[in-house]
Amino acid sequence: METARPVHPDLGGFMRTVTKIVRFRRQTKRGTVTGTGTGVGVVAEDGSIAKVKFPELFDDASLPSQPDCVEDDEKKHNLQLQQQLHREAVESLLAKLFASVSAVKAAYAQLQIAQSPYDPDTIQSADQVVVSELKELSQLKHSYFQRQDGRDHPRHPSARDAQLLAELQEQRNLIKAFQITAKKMESDLQHKDTSIILLQQQLSESEKLNRSVEGRLHPDRSLQVPDGLHLSALNPAHLLAVLRYTVKSIRSFAKLMAREMERAGWDLAAAAASIGLDDPPYGKAEHRAFAFESYVCRVIFSDFHQHGFGLCNHAASNPLPDRQSFFREFAELKSAEVEQILHSGSAFREFCGAKYLVMVHPRMEESFFGNLDHRALVGSGEGFPETEFFVGFAEMARRVWVLHRLFFSFEPGAGASIFQVRRGCRFSEVYMESVVDARVAYGSGEGSPVVGFTVVPGFKLGKTVVQCKVYPVAAVMRPGTASIV
């Protein structure tokens, strides 16, 4: 019994089909396809070949192949490389452009500085830099247009380095421009400092001239004390200068008070006697002014030796100031306006009001002005009169206050003191100065002159004595007595 064999399809038909497929693939590679060109043969399930239709635009170029993909990647890479090189070239061009502009800016700044003072070498150097950079800009322009036209597409490997060098050069040019600007500002600053010094000198000269003119117009208003005086440089000469300055205002106010007495119909001889001074001898009516000066000094210099000048309220509310505080107040008030000080609420305000109420008696004020408005306003503390009489008194008080501040600015060990001479004491040229001529003082009387009364007190600083001003009279010596003629 034979074994059953499987049924095979026709072997010849199978081989024919394989042959057709191989032939078709070969024709496809050569660009030819069997059929009408719009389709290819495909083996069906029954072994027959069927024609498949393709789109009309489909050709052999549309069929993907491995070499074509590699070529596309290569083109894409080349395009990216060209774009990168172009970008680097543009960045390098811009960096060079900015570097040239900064160089021109620095050269222009240098050119400006070289104009004043005129520096021909610097001007020529800056001009050469400007010309060189303009040429560089022209070359950059031509290079840019050539690249735009496609005539020059250099693939320089150091474009990035050129860009960095250009940026570095730009920073150097900027630093140079800043240095030139800083140098110019320093020069301007020195010029302004010089101008300030010159203006300060002119101001100082103008102030000196102004003080000189004011001194000639108003001899009693100028204080001959340096403005830049320091505490360590104090000496008795400064105290003497301020004392003379003060005495002028005392004399001026005494004359003003005597004039008001005359207007009010007073008997000046009786007035001199009423304040404790006999009418001056020798028949000199003008000597009565010394009696009034003596009265003013006696009141205004009262308590001068005390730090607080006898002001109870001020001493109670303020601790004992040191010499630096006294000197600082002296420097502030020696040139200040009296109206400004009176409205500042300082201790001088209290001093001025207190001294006025003591010096000007109510009956005296009423006879001068017909009322007591001055006294009422000063006593209320709400303000001060603005009349000529009170302004003259306030200016005198200000100068005495300034003298007091300077007096206590000296070292405590200097032995600073104020003194006056009692009536009837022998006249001494060491401690006293006569306010009248010696021949008038001695007269025809016998014996040495004696003190009639002290006009202005004296001061002593260590071994230095500032003489007090006295009115001397001749004394007639009798056994055991001395009388004043």
Count of the separate structural domains: 4
Structural class: alpha+beta
Biggest sheet features: 4 strands, mixed
Beta strand %: 5-15%
User: Helical stretch count?
Assistant: 15
Oligomer: single chain
| Shape field | rod-shaped
Low-pLDDT runs: 32-38, 151-155, 477-485
Question: What's the order of the H and E elements?
Answer: HEEHHHHHHHHHHHHHEEHEEEEE
Give structural notes.
This protein is an alpha+beta fold and 485 residues long. It has four domains: 52 residues, no CATH class; 118 residues, no CATH class; 188 residues, no CATH class; 74 residues, no CATH class. Helices cover 58% and strands 9% of the residues. It has 15 helices and nine strands. A hairpin with a 5-residue loop joins strand 1 and strand 2. Helix 5 packs across helix 7. The C terminus is likely disordered.
Q: Would you spell out the secondary-structure blueprint of this structure?
A:
Layout: H1 11-29, E1 39-43, E2 49-53, H2 66-113, H3 120-149, H4 159-217, H5 236-263, H6 268-274, H7 288-300, H8 312-317, H9 323-333, H10 338-342, H11 347-359, H12 362-369, H13 373-380, H14 388-407, E3 417-419, E4 432-434, H15 438-442, E5 449-456, E6 458-461, E7 464-466, E8 468-478, E9 481-484
Parallel strand pairs: 4-8
Antiparallel strand pairs: 1-2, 3-6, 5-8, 6-7, 8-9
Helix pairs in contact: 2-3, 2-4, 5-7, 5-14, 9-14, 11-14
